[in-house]
């Protein structure tokens, strides 16, 4: 799982096309031996989507065109993620002058494929009804999942049964961590599934409190958008603690914090979350 970040849309698309073939808007794929590479390219200017994609990934590429406020936010976001990654630019001297303190690695962009750990959940991006099939959830698996597995929907707590699995529009009997999946489910109504943000393995512990780490460049804030493994939540920030408005799998150990209401000339990337 790779996210491509850039303030140059054409360059971001070019990098993604080198890494895979476009499957849908903002998502590229390449079949590899033993799996599929998924490349996410968030829309330029959508910082929240960039945060979601980045926290879903195991690696990032950051290409900086013009040195501007957008480039600064993306560089801070890459730093906040805690992921391994690589940055590139046409003006390395300017990049180091403005962003050198972040410690991002500069160099040629290389193919890097890192399979995610098994985190015991499936991130649900969207859900809908398919005639003749029933409720279907589309998202990313961060656990092994097989037909007839029983999972628990969050936030409802409803137990669901996996009827079928599709990867790249092909029926499969199982999926591994890192796969973009379509799951046909039984045991839940479509309207309830539309409120679902994750499907977890039974017995997976949940948490709603994390340590909040503020970047020195960011202004103080008492609330923010947080992203952990793609899951979006609002959080009340109380000093060094963030209290989320929804529980997430305890297997998620780090997230990013974005303050969309940051005062002018302050970065919107507030910092990051760590498991206490």
What attributes characterize this protein structure?
46% strand, alpha+beta, 21 strands
What do you see in this structure?
The strands form 4 sheets. The protein has a 6-stranded mixed β-sheet, sandwiched between helices. It has a 6-stranded antiparallel β-barrel with strand order 7-8-14-11-10-15. The protein is an alpha+beta fold. It contains 5 helices and 21 strands.
Summarize the structure.
The protein is α+β, with helices and mostly antiparallel strands and 276 residues long.
Distance between the termini: 26 Å
**Total number of beta strands:** 21
Class of secondary structure makeup: alpha+beta
- State the order of secondary-structure elements, H for helix, E for strand: EHEEEHEHEHEEEEEEEEHEEEEEEE
Strand content: over 45%
Unreliable runs, pLDDT <50, ≥5 residues? none
Order of strands across the main sheet:
2-3-4-1-5-6
Helical content band: 10-25%
Biggest sheet details: 6 strands, mixed
Tell me the quaternary state.
Answer: single chain
């Amino acid at each position: 799982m790779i996210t491509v970040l850039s303030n140059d849309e054409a360059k971001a698309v070019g990098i993604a096309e080198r890494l895979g073939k476009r499957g849908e808007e903002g998502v590229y794929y390449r079949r590899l031996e033993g799996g599929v590479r998924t490349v996410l390219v968030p829309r330029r200017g959508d910082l929240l989507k960039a945060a979601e994609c980045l926290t879903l990934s195991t690696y990032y590429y950051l290409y900086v065109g013009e040195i501007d406020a957008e480039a600064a936010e993306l560089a801070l976001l890459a730093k906040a993620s805690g992921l391994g990654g690589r940055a590139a630019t046409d003006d390395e001297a300017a990049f180091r002058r403005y962003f050198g303190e972040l410690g991002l690695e500069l160099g040629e962009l290389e193919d890097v494929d890192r399979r995610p750990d098994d985190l015991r959940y499936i991130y649900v991006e969207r859900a809908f009804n398919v005639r003749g099939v029933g409720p279907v959830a589309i998202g990313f698996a961060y656990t092994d999942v097989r037909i007839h597995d029983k999972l628990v929907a969050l936030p409802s707590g409803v137990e669901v049964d996996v009827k079928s699995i599709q990867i790249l529009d092909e029926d499969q009997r199982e999926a591994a961590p890192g796969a973009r999946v379509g799951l046909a489910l039984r045991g839940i109504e479509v309207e309830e599934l539309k409120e679902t943000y994750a499907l977890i393995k039974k017995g997976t512990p949940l948490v709603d409190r994390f340590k909040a780490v503020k970047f020195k460049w960011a202004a103080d804030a008492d609330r923010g958008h947080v992203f952990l493994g793609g899951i979006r939540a609002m959080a009340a920030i109380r000093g060094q603690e963030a209290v989320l408005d929804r529980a997430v799998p305890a297997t998620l150990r780090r997230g990013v914090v974005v303050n969309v209401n940051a005062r002018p000339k302050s970065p919107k990337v507030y910092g990051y979350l760590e498991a206490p």
